Structures are given as C-alpha cells and as structure tokens.
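Protein Entry — a single chain follows
Fields — amino acid sequence, structure tokens
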Amino acid sequence: MKDKIFAYLQSIPDGKVVTYGQIAAYLGDKRLAREAGNALHKNPDPDKYPCYKVVSAKGRLSANFAFGGLAGQAQRLKKDGIKVANDKVDLAKYQWKER
C-alpha cells in the first residue's frame, strides 16, 4: 500500500495539494485516511515523494509533519507557489481535482 501512496504523491502537480481523504479514496476506501497519514510520516525521501502536499480536509497543515513540523511544511508549500496563512491553505484554490 505504501508504494501506491508514494506513487500517488508523485502525480500531484506543482502548486496543488491533496487531502488525506483523497489519498484514502484513491486507495479505494475512505476509511484509510489515518493509515495514509501513518505511511506519509514514514516517508523515506521527501524530495522524491512530496508528502508536504498533503493537508487535512479543512486545508490545515500537519503539526506532525515529519520534516520540520508546521514550519517545514509551510516552507515547502510556499516554495511550490502555494500561499499558506494561519497554518492553512485555501483548498478552493489549491486542491488538486485529479478526476
């Protein structure tokens, strides 16, 4: 399952984010959002697998982001052209609608 999650991360275009629920839906079961989060926390290579592009269903960043917490995730998102305000991103503007 991890391989499938990491492959999905690589498909997210620059300047876009997805939610944990989107990853779970991609895996075929919306109840797998927590499992997706656990896999992302064990990401072996954040440059290859951009887990920083995953936010909550409300657009919130993760305080538990494995590569620098909120500040690390915000920095990577900003570098990707995504505006972060109050530890959130605007899903209406930045959420990737892959289908």
Remarks:
- The chain is about 40% helix and 5% strand.
- The two ends are 21 Å apart (CA to CA).
